[in-house]
Design brief:
With about 350 residues, the protein is α/β, with parallel strands linked by helices. It contains twelve helices and twelve strands. Helix 8 links the parallel strand 6 and strand 7. The N and C termini lie far apart (about 80 Å). InterPro entries: HTH_LacI, LacI/GalR-like_sensor, Lambda_DNA-bd_dom_sf, Peripla_BP_I. Keywords: DNA-binding, Transcription, Transcription regulation. This is LacI family DNA-binding transcriptional regulator.
Length: about 350
């Protein structure tokens, strides 16, 4: 970049301070990244011009980006929940001429350097996150490149997301179980660092309150991971207690399958003696016997909509933060059917 006069140019840090923006914002303007508000861009360029920079090339209006790499981050390739989401995101990326790069990694303080290195290496146009990301790291990523949250999202930050209403979906399922006469409904939950675990627990407790049913802490199983074997063991202990539940609401089909297994081991008939519901509508829900009633998430649409939102953000950074909640559906199967014994 040429200098307009002989006076010493200010550093980018000084320009950022005067413009009251981050250095990352100045960097995005210099490299042609699009996720900068027009008024912010104009302000920074005006300050740069006053400090001796030739900003003529940077004044050009950026054309819509129709190619590049989008990083799709998932915590585990072994979790079948993410495969259909990735398929939807890939279809949307192709539709706009982008390539989707699936990155398997939990985003935390130990891995953020590797991820930012990957972003720089492939010159990523944007990123879709599907898992819990600590707020400071999520803010850092969002300041680096266009970002959309899928499934998991952080309400503390003004960042776009596509997800579902976990509380409403849980309440609908609980109301269904209560309508079938179930009064001691156990709840099998996952790690509380996840939004879905916190919101589904909220939906569970509020449903009990609405129905005038007492909350029994002994009926809540809190697990540190979505593990089939771990759930089989924990559920088995609850089934061996004097005060057994008469139904299980599980926040995952993996947990629900574990409940069906534990009941079979204990000689408990599903659904006559124990009704079971899951969440996600994974293949395993229809493969076990009896097949499991579950909440269907529109997994393909979650991925597709997230990528559509990201491409729009890449090319129209002035667009306000959009937040989309997709509809869910309760799929009733044999595990809650009063006609099955």
């Amino acid at each position: 970049m040429a200098v307009k006069n002989d006076r010493k140019k200010s550093t980018y840090q000084e320009i950022a301070a005067e413009a009251e923006v981050s250095i990352a914002t100045v960097s995005r303007i210099l490299t042609g990244a699009s996720k900068v508000k027009p008024e912010t861009r104009d302000k920074v360029l005006e300050i740069m011009a006053r400090h001796g920079y030739d900003t003529a090339d940077l004044q050009m209006v950026k054309q819509p980006q129709t190619s590049g790499i989008i990083i799709f981050n998932i915590p585990s390739l072994g979790n079948p929940f993410y495969s259909q989401i990735a398929s939807g995101a890939k279809a949307a990326a192709r539709r706009h001429g982008f390539q989707l790069l699936v990155n398997e990694e939990h985003i935390n303080s130990n891995t953020i350097a590797t991820l930012t290195g990957l972003i720089q290496k492939v010159n990523a146009a944007g990123i879709i996150t599907t898992n819990h990301v600590p707020t400071p790291l999520l803010r850092k990523l969002y300041d680096t490149l266009p970002l959309v949250q899928c499934c998991e999202f952080d309400n503390e930050l003004e960042i776009p997301y596509v997800s579902i209403d976990d509380i409403a979906a849980t309440k609908a399922t609980m109301e269904y179980l209560i309508s079938l006469g179930r009064r001691r409904i156990a709840f099998v939950n996952g790690p509380m660092r996840y939004k879905y675990a916190r919101q589904r627990l909220k939906g569970y407790t509020e449903s009990l309150e609405k129905a005038g049913m007492a909350q029994d802490p002994a009926l809540v199983i809190q697990l540190p991971d979505v593990s089939y074997d771990m759930a089989v063991s924990a559920v088995g202990q609850l089934l061996a207690s004097p005060q057994k539940p008469d139904a299980f609401f599980c926040i995952s089909d993996v947990y629900a399958a574990a409940v069906v297994k534990s009941c079979a081991r204990s000689g408990i008939n599903v659904p006559r003696d124990m009704m079971v519901t899951g969440f996600d509508n994974l293949d395993i829900a229809s493969m076990v016997n009896p097949a499991i009633t579950t909440v269907n998430q529109p997994k393909y649409q979650l991925g597709f909509s997230s990528c559509e939102l990201l491409v729009d953000l890449i090319n129209n950074p002035q667009t306000g933060v959009r937040r989309i909640l997709l509809e869910t559906e309760l799929i009733v199967r044999e595990s809650t059917s009063p006609l099955i014994s």
